[in-house]
Design brief:
Helix content: 40-55%
Largest sheet: 8 strands, mixed
CATH topology: Rossmann fold
Low-confidence stretches: 1-22
Order of helices and strands: HEEEHEHHEHEHEHEHH
CATH architecture: 3-Layer(aba) Sandwich
Number of strands: 8
CATH class: Alpha Beta
Mean pLDDT: 89
Number of helices: 9
Number of domains: 1
Distance between the termini: 67 Å
Strand order of the largest sheet: 1-2-4-3-5-6-7-8
CATH superfamily: Alpha/Beta hydrolase fold, catalytic domain
């Protein structure tokens, strides 16, 4: 009887937890939703746009834009928007959530070693996302909302990998990134090689702003942390880069996004408050 009762309670708890998770991911994202056809992808693409403190009389050359990746999860996009408004209630900003339904493919850079990425689903397509961002999404946002060329890219995990890759590939366009628990272990640590080459050759007109963070203890964070610290060391030795690095007291990879986004937005205030 006790065994039957315990099993019944387990089933009820499981169902409640499953329903809670379903409700969590079915939440509606803040702002306006746009669907567009991309010449770089076979399927329709989705972005979410939320305006923070935007004054209709604001000059377009001062309006900051933040592109947040993995926005197919509305709660994390809403969290980012709410956190920004909490910290900067008087800073006008357009926050664009970029959905990445095939995240293991489109958030990963071209790989250098196939065997090391065999566990990923069609990896190495970050250049397609980068081209779509540069040639489709950013021009649309500028024409629709009158934003400036002042941009921040924000991402967690593979999203953090992508935003780093995007800055290394286009530092004139992407001058500020917020990367929480980025995967720099990907493809035999090829990102560390790219970061090293970038820092050696970096001669930018004006500063680049980087926020990096990692957690601790769980298996994924333990594997990511040494390379994140190595990247932080490399960036810190480049005079053109303003680096902020945090080792978060967070013990689960999926949870570093919460404190990481909060701390990152706080520490990028010099860039965020420019011309506001």
């Amino acid at each position: 009887m006790k065994l039957i009762l315990s099993f019944a309670l387990f089933c009820i708890a499981f169902c409640l937890n499953s329903n809670a998770q379903a409700d969590f991911y079915s939440l509606q994202a803040l702002g306006d939703r746009y669907i567009y056809d991309s010449k770089y992808f076979n399927d329709p693409r989705e972005i979410q746009v939320y305006r923070c403190g935007v004054d209709a009389t604001l000059e377009s050359d001062s309006l900051l834009t933040i592109y947040v990746f993995d926005a197919q999860y509305p709660p994390t996009f809403n969290l980012f928007c709410s956190t920004f408004e909490l910290i900067y209630p008087n800073v006008a900003c357009v926050i664009v959530g970029v959905s990445n339904p095939n995240r293991q493919s489109e958030l990963t850079p071209p790989y250098t070693d196939f065997d090391s990425v065999s566990g990923y689903d069609n990896p190495g397509k970050a250049d397609s996302l980068l081209l779509s961002l540069k040639n489709e999404v950013i021009p649309f946002i500028k024409s629709k909302y009158g934003t400036s060329s002042r941009i921040i890219l924000a991402g967690h995990s593979l999203g953090g990998t992508f935003v780093t890759y995007a800055m290394l590939a286009n530092p004139d366009l992407f001058r500020c990134i917020l990367a929480v628990s980025p995967n720099y272990v990907y493809s035999q640590r090829m990102m560390i090689d790219r970061i090293t080459c970038f820092a050696d050759e970096c001669h930018e007109n004006g500063s680049l702003y980087i926020y990096l963070a990692n957690g601790k203890k769980d298996k994924m964070e333990a594997s990511f942390t040494p390379e994140i610290k190595k990247a932080a060391d490399i960036f810190s030795n480049c005079s053109e880069i303003v680096l902020n690095y945090d080792s978060l007291n967070i013990e689960k990879h999926s949870h570093t996004i919460f404190e990481g986004y909060y701390r990152g937005l706080l520490k990028l205030d010099n860039y965020i408050k420019q011309a506001n």
